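It would be a great kindness if you could assist me with a short task in structural biology. A protein sequence and the structure tokens that stand for its backbone fold form the material at issue. I should value your view on which stretches of the chain appear to form regular backbone elements. The record follows directly beneath this note.
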Amino acid sequence: MFGTGKAGIFTQQEKVMKEERKFLENMALRNGGLLLVDDVLAAAKDKKCVLHRHFEWDDTEAANQYRREQARGMIQKCKIIITESPDISIRAFVSLSDDQKNGGGYRMTATVLGDDDMKAQLLHDIQITIGRWKHKLYLLDVETVAIIKRLEQAISKKTTINEIHTAV
């Protein structure tokens, strides 16, 4: 049995994730390399399936969660036009990681951009997103990663400038 420390828990999680990945890989191989969402759901219905725990099987709760996801999508589609740049349309609402830690929610973009602390949080969130992009892009090519690195550097400079303005 695994120890009670964090290392033991992490090892157990790794084992389960590996088992789940193998299950999905085998499903894809049986279907010519294509993994279909409906096939995953059909297999996961079986309570003994390693994937079963990842899904909400209570239809009422699942419907509520789906409607919440639809609401998130609707909120994310709302756009505003920046008055200084009429050709640029941006999201009207943004979700900050600090808010996500406390149950989620969206803030008006104009409010976030007008508040130094929230704007700094948004820049930090953007940096994290760029970091995720880099990891995914390494799968494709190094040239695109170089472009993303330059973007990351520009955001980092912007963050440093904002920190200086905030301190003054």
Notes: The chain has two domains: 6-55, 94-167. The longest strand covers residues 85-91.
